[in-house]
Each structure stands twice: as structure tokens, then as C-alpha cells.
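Entry 14. Structure prediction run on the chain below.
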Amino acid sequence: MPADASEFPPTPKKPSLPIEGGLREYLLRYKRERELPVTYERMRDFQEAMPLSDEHGKPTLWDSVIYRADEMGDLYEGLKRVYALLKVDGDFSVVQHLYVDRVDFCSFGNSTPFRIRVVNAYNDNQDYFYLKKADASRAYGLELEHLLSPNRLNFITHGATLVEEHIAGIPGDVFIERWLHDRDLSPVRVAKEMVKFNERSFVRLLGDMRSYNYVVVVTPDFEGAQVRIRAMDFDQQSYNGRKNFYLPQFFKENAEVVLYCMKHLHSKTARQYQREEHTLILQRADLASLRLGVLLDAMVRDPIAPREKVHELRASLAEHYQRGEYLRCESMGELVRENLASIRRTIGQTTKPAQLGEFIF
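Output returned:
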């Protein structure tokens, strides 16, 4: 394990923060807030739960749940309508051939989600979506991912309910164990994407990107396979006070892939990839400047983290970027905004690479 890797304990459950005020207005404005026929609280009213095993017979963190017979038909029909809202803006006519095959529940984590498996009756193709307890931090995380990363995300909120589409990919821990040293993958491409993912997480302050909180998407190309790392857990958006908590490179669960990057990338090449990702983040921010500005204005006014955590993090970021402007920040939204200002300033100062994300090499 790299000497700088941190022994972060398993993340405790973060308090669930209500969606209200400016964030609710933002979600309404950009059509994220919709009336839903099924709520999270209704999903909690199941009668039985049976442990769910994986394809190898090993237990998972999920239970398959069963509802009352007189409730199930109406509930499943409502879930199909939720899926139609998520996928085709509510046009139920194009999804009438789908049926709900299974509902699973996970009591692990902050959002305690329900996972719904939807199957196409014509060809048995299956898809998933999730109903979760709505949380302001997670909503900010999803929207920042949508605006500042190369990935688009579909989600809907309704009061205390959050609906998310499934993010497909190989779980990071499985990828590290089974795929990392696959001869069909270019080591440089894998290392490059890890550097870029590290920067995306740090700039927008998405924390707790351990290997089991992101997925790896492998896409065959005419010259080898391309790799993309995608976050799939947004519960720890801008909540923790420790700077390293927002850098995936510092988690011991990612130690093997960090060592892999150190082996296959020269430090100057890593800085090049950092700079590329910073440039892309700023381009995305400029393209969505109005929408991002409205989101960050709401985030600035929203107390999504205790003041002592904000002060702890702002001191670390001020030292990291050598910018005293951070010490005036009083909210996580201000820190995200200041991070964007910092990389914009850094890109204009090409003679100071030490101010970049400093991936370990």
C-alpha cells in the first residue's frame, strides 16, 4: 500500500438532510421534481424480506421483499409509471410490455435504497432503478456529477423520495480484483482514467470514493478498450472536513490501483492528464454556467455540513492551493465554487504544476 494511503474507517451514516429552500426551487426549475405515484415511505411497508444471494450463492447486502397480495398489483403498476417518468418522460404507452420482476431492499448505507428490477416481456431484457430516501447532499452530488463530469444522470425527486437510474459498470473492487491486470486492457489508459477520476472527485468535493463506491465501464474500441470510472454513491458530497477524504488515491481500498498508476505513468504525464481534466471541467462549467450558478447559489445557502467541518476543510484547501480566499468561505457551496476558481487560476499559471491535484508518484 502506498505510504500516503489513509486508513479511513468505514464511513458512518451521515444525517439525512431534507431537500428544501433553494435546492427544491432548483429541482423544480430544471424538471427534476415531479409528482410520483409511489413514494419511499410506501415502499417501506413490505411484509417479508428474504436474503438475496449472488450468482455464486454468496450472500449480498440486499434482501428481496414481498408486499401484501392486495397491495402488490397496484404498487407494481405504480413502479412501472415511475420507470416511465424516469426513462421516457412519463409516456406509459411505450413501456406497457414491461413488468416488475423483483424488489430488493438494502439497509446498508445512508440512503437505504430499494432496487426495482424491470423486465421486457418480449425479450426478457432487464433494467434496474432505485427508490431512496431523499437527501440534500446526495441531490447536490447527483447534479454536480451531471454538470461537471462526462456522465449524464437521470433522477427525480418528490418530497422525501429520490428516484435514480441504474449506473451500469463493473464495481471498482471487482475490477481491481479480476480486471486490473487483464492483458486486453491498456495499463496507461486505466491509469489515465484513475488520475482523471481523482481530479473530478476532488474539484467538486465528492467524498468516500472507495473501490466499492464507483464502477468501471470498459468499452471496446478499434484499438483496444477504453475505460471510464463513474461514481455511483453520492451520499458523501461535501460533508467531511478532511481534505484527503475527497481524493480517491488516499483510500487503502484503492491502494492497488494507485500502485498500478505509479508503475505505468510518469509524473509529468500524470500532470498532463490532471490538466486535461481540469480544462474539461471548466469547459463543462462554462457550458452550463447559468444552471451551475443557480445550483451553487442554493448550495452556498444550504447548511449541508457543520461549520467546524467547513472550517477544517477550508484551511486544508487554502494550504493546498496556496490561496487565502478559501479562509473567507463559510459553506461547502463556497468551497466548491472556490475550487473551480482555483483550477481556472492554475491553468493560467502553467509554470506552477505543484498547485495541481498532486497524484502520488
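Confidence is low (pLDDT under 50) at residues 350-357.
Filed with the rest of this week's runs.
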